[in-house]
Amino acid sequence: MICGRDWHGGNIQNGCGAKFKWEKAKPYRAMVPNTLTLQEFTEKAPEKAKDLIHEISCDLCSNQIRGLLFSCINCPSFNVCESCEKNGLQHNSTHVFKIIDSIEY
């Protein structure tokens, strides 16, 4: 590969022009800073977050989501409430959830 274009030319995009081979690339490892567990996050979450009423229904219990909202990064249309998240998601265990403690629509 050549950064910014196809190996055989054409499809030129912004890039540095560096050459590399996928088979020699180091495996991807996410750089996750020190993150809180759900319990730690919930205990430290701003009080205002508990009063939030989202305009989204939980995809597991179908109730309107109140408080923290858990949104699947892999499946953007899959959202669950804090209660369902605590009780164990019935979703792909390899997927990552973004915890939303404010209104972001």
Describe this structure in words.
It is a single chain. It contains 3 helices and 5 strands. With 105 residues, the chain is α+β, with helices and mostly antiparallel strands. It has a domain at 31-100. Strand 3 (69-72) and strand 4 (79-81) form a beta hairpin. The model has no long low-confidence stretch (mean pLDDT 79).
Topology of helices and strands:
Blueprint: H1 38-44, H2 47-50, E1 53-57, E2 64-66, E3 69-72, E4 79-81, H3 82-86, E5 97-100
Antiparallel strand pairs: 1-2, 3-4, 3-5
Give the percentage of residues in beta strands.
15-25%
**Number of DSSP-assigned strands:** 5
Rg (C-alpha, Å)? 20 Å
Oligomer: single chain
Cα separation of the termini: 38 Å
Largest sheet: number of strands, sense, barrel closure: 3 strands, antiparallel
The number of distinct helices, counting runs of at least 4 residues, comes to 3
**Portion in helices:** 10-25%
Major sheet: arrangement of strands? 4-3-5
Unreliable residue stretches: none
3D shape: elongated
What's the order of the H and E elements? HHEEEEHE
pLDDT averaged over residues: 79
Helix-strand makeup class: alpha+beta
Tell me briefly what this model is.
The chain has a domain of 70 residues. The protein contains 3 helices and 5 strands, in the order ααββββαβ. The mean pLDDT is 79.
